[in-house]
Structures are given as structure tokens and as C-alpha cells.
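Example record used in the benchmark description.
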Amino acid sequence: MLIKKQKTSYSEIKNSLKTGDIILMHGLHASSRFIQLVEGCPWSHVAIIVLAGDIGLDVGDDNILLWESDTETAVQDVILGKAKSGPMLVKLSERLKYNFTHGEDSRCAVRYLHAERDAGMFESLKKVIPEMHPATFPDTYHEMLNPALGRVFKEKTDLDTMFCSELAAYTYIKMGLLTSIHPVNSYFPLDFSEKLSVGLLKRAYLDQEIELYVDTK
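Model output (C-alpha cells):
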């Protein structure tokens, strides 16, 4: 008999999150549903947890950030102080509340990264964020085309646009956690899910998915 995993509330788990942990989301838009169908996986969005202090940012008490690439919404990028598309650094609590309140997502899960976190890793992250922050999110056509080019034909695409799993892969490579053999545009959210679970370097690994309950009140 299949036993359904019990959800854990975000408020219960937030203080255990660390820089490098992975967030997965199940989107409800047509493009999200298409990605989930192609993957055979419930997740269409992947992003990386960043604790503000680890990269020298002071954003107040709510210091759990999300490094992600997405379309522009009302959620404010903490670097610009306004919304943007493409790679952005947002407060995780605001992203979750917005997405679940506005029907962007219906499921969310976290995967803890088990790795030795050192100053070098954080320095690399501090460099990759301003490097990729100016990029934009690809249009719908290239959001579908670019990962296919990377995964099927091993063809690299320009880094002036980044979709979510491309940014996650690029960031993990720069942090020394992922090989650079494969084009970054060859990665899907599936690769960071429990179903496939990409192999990491330095004996690092991602733990099982913990599905979250998000209180939008």
C-alpha cells in the first residue's frame, strides 16, 4: 500500500534551512504543466535557498532568500528593491505566500543539501549572483527549446536568458557542487528532484523531498 507523506509546515522547517538547499514547486500555468508532463515529474520549478548573512546581505530578520529565475511578479527582488524577471533574489516567505495565494503553485518541497559549506563556497555564490542577476527569463518558445537543445543535442545556449533549472545548475557548478561536463541548459527541475537526483561532487548529496504546507494567512 502506498503511504502518502505527511506535509510539514514552512514555519516549522524554516529555521533548519541552509544556503544551498533546494526548493521545488509544482506550477499550475500551462507552461508549467507542459514541463511536468515532459519530465514525468510533479515539479516544474527549482530554486536555491540563500541565507542573507552568508553572502553579506542585511535584509532584516526575515533573512531566508530564494535564488531563482522566474517571470516577473509582484515579489520584490532584494537587490533592486523592485520586481524583475529572470535571475532574482527574493524573500522565500514572500515568494511562497504570493505563489500559493495567487494560484501559481499548488505544491512545494524542500531538499536539504548535505555538503561541507565553507567560506570558498559562499564567496563563489557571492560572485555568481551579481554575474547572472542581469539576465532575463526566456520567452515561452525558448523556455521549451533551450533545455531540449542542451539535453538532446548537447548544444549550449547563451547565458543572457536563464530558466530556473539552468540557473540552479550554473550556480551549483560555480559553488563546486556539480560537474561542468553537461551544458547548464540541459537540466530540468526533474534533475534536482528525488525521482532522478543529480549526482553531486565532494560527496555532497540532496536529501529526500519534504513536502511543505504553506500558510497564506
